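Many introductory courses stop at the sequence. We go one step further.
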Amino acid sequence: MDTTCKACAPGVDECTSTAATKCLSGYFISGTACSVCPRNAAVCTSYTVITTCNAGYSLVSSACIICPNGAATCSSTNVALTCNTGYYIS
């Protein structure tokens, strides 16, 4: 009997013939598949639970918001909490 290798579905890092077992960054396990996280979320456990945002974004009230220019973290789109190297709080 011949065997072949088949690719997992998009967004899936590891899978079996019937289910995703590990998702790529920016996706979460949803039943037997991987679903995309909300916009600008790097890690989430569901579409409503974000744990980490992409670089340049901070988690505020369960959403990833864009930080001001030069900010590493922020509490709103115009309030920097920490700055990237080469920047300072003003």
